Amino acid sequence: FNFIGAAPRPGTVHEHLYDDELVVCGSARHRLAKMRRVPLAELASERWAIQSSQHLWVQTLMHVLRDHGCPPPNIAMQVRSMRARLQIWSCTDLLGVTTKRLLRQAGTPFGVKEIAVAELRRARPVGAIYRKDGYLPPAARRLIELLKARLSRPA
To answer: Which of 38, 51, 47, 33 has the alpha carbon at shortest distance from 99?
Structure first.
């Protein structure tokens, strides 16, 4: 399971499961969390806690900022653990990027919420990827069917 492109690579099959959306997030107490819409330029002075500067969502953040004439993000720390990032975002003024689905499922208990930056909202399709002519066990086929049924409903 991974992000899937518009067309599968040769010899593979992509089965779309759902679309996930990139969002900026931070503590519910963060000054930007109180705004209905945050201009992209407001992010210029913010500091960030991210997974890795090579992560897809962070690369998207960097490109959008650059394309709008903003400086690159000021990365204060890189933390691999999602739980640790949620804790850091909840008790500091550091911002992060994550998916809307994950934020809905895990952000609330930590007091982490979406920071509404319209220019950074990006949807990415997520799906199952497997070999076109390879053996797909019945259990894997059933798992894909169950995920499609479950994920087609709102989280």
So the answer is: 51
Amino acid 131: pLDDT: 93
Higher pLDDT, 107 or 74: 74
Structure tokens at 66: 């650059």
Which H/E stretch holds residue 18?
Answer: strand 12-27
Encoding tokens for residue 109? Answer: 């208990």
Q: Name the percent of the chain lying above pLDDT 70.
A: 98
Alpha-carbon distance of 49 to 94, in angstroms, equals 6
Which among 16, 13, 10, 17 has a CA at the least distance from the CA of 151? 17
All residues at 6 or more sequence positions from 8 whose CB lies less than 8 Å from its CB, including other chains: 14, 129, 132
